[in-house]
Amino acid sequence: MNPAQKALLDALVQHQSYLFRASSQAVNEITAIFNKLSHSQISAIFELIESLTDSERKALAVMDFSSKAKTSRALSEIKAILNEWFALLATELDVGFEKSAVALAVYEATYAAEWLGESAALVSGEKLYKEIKQRPYAGGQLVKYLFSGLTESLRRNVEHVIRDGVSQGQTNTEIIRRIKGKRVKEGGKYIYKGGLLDAPITSIERQVRTARSHISTATYIDTYKALGAEYVKVVATLDGRTCKTCGNLDANVYHIDDASRPRFPIHPNNRTTYVPCDKDGNLAGKRPFVMDERKVKDIPKDERKHLIGQLDANTKFKDFFDQADEFFQRTWLGKTKYELYKKGGYTLDKFVDPLGKPYTIAQLKELDAKTFKELGL
Fold first, then answer.
1. Tell me: the pLDDT tens digits for 306-349?
2. How far is CA 241 from the centre of its chain?
3. Is the peptide bond before 268 cis (omega within 30 degrees of 0)?
């Protein structure tokens, strides 16, 4: 076993925590761009709405913002500002993300190579990022269309609120609050919460973190290939926040060129990745576990001793789960699935279909009924 492989596994969890913090910085940068553009455009729109005549307000209340029909100068300016707002968002969010994404790909290529005993990356991070943008992840998403759905949805909702607010006779302040939310103090600074902008901000965090995970994992795979690795092993996080699909895939070994190999991330906020291994999937070292659904920072220090530890690196999530206490097992599976598991007739893989989608209880009953029928029982 290559000593560098042990070092990679031992350091991987720590590196992932660093990546999470780096992603937080990227999220903050993208959110700042979003807020700056949105707030300035919202102010410009409502300055115009404030000056509308009664007839213009009536027209605005039923306006089709996508129509090219002739209208007053003020209403045309409102449409123009909306067009500019979402055109700028589509451009600036992509530019802001790409800058940090390229830097991430460059760094991750170097990181993976160094931990496998090489002094420098054998793949170009910049070139690799261009390719990664075309590779689907998390259900078929593409990095190149990262924010397109967000801007389209927000525009539609803003138009709805403007029409609805004007038709109901709401003041500008009331309509703006519906869009921006209420100004509140949080973490020593003022932010807006409770408006239309909440959903896209939440989406930005989810999309950025998931896309960056895709970039990291894809970079690792290409670097492993360049260094001659033939097999990779799935490494899920051993804690209560790991989904049932990833828990079931944990420790699976694939040839690195296997077309059926899962392309992580397979869902938003996915923390599962790959490490190189031998044909039998053997790894050296330890892997940490957290027998709780909470993040480590949210677990009181006096409880951590019994909930956090380390296991052999080759311990599968299924083995980890079998060793867990009843509370953890019941919480992770849910009451009904836990009872099925405890009776001994259902192993963890029974709760997930071959494509990785969790079965509902109704689906399990249907499948088992079909099996019994085929067996003549």
1. 666 655 556 666 776 777 777 777 777 777 777 777 776 677 66
2. 14
3. no
Structure tokens at 359: 């079965």
Instruction: Copy the structure tokens of residue 145.
Output: 């269309």
Q: Which residue has the tokens 């078929």?
A: 140
Q: What is the DSSP letter of 233?
A: E
| Range in 63-72, 114-123, 281-290, 342-351 the model is least confident about | 281-290
* Amino acid symbol at 211: A
What's the pLDDT tens digit per position in 330-339?
Answer: 777 777 777 7
The number of angstroms, rounded, from the C-alpha of 147 to the middle of its chain's C-alpha atoms is 13
Query: Structure tokens of 52?
Result: 């509308």
Tokens representing 329 are 């097992």
Q: How far apart are the first and last CA of the chain?
A: 49
CA torsion angle for 267, 271, 272, 275 (degrees, to 10)? 140
Note the pLDDT of residue 373.
61
Structure token pair of residue 144: 């190149």
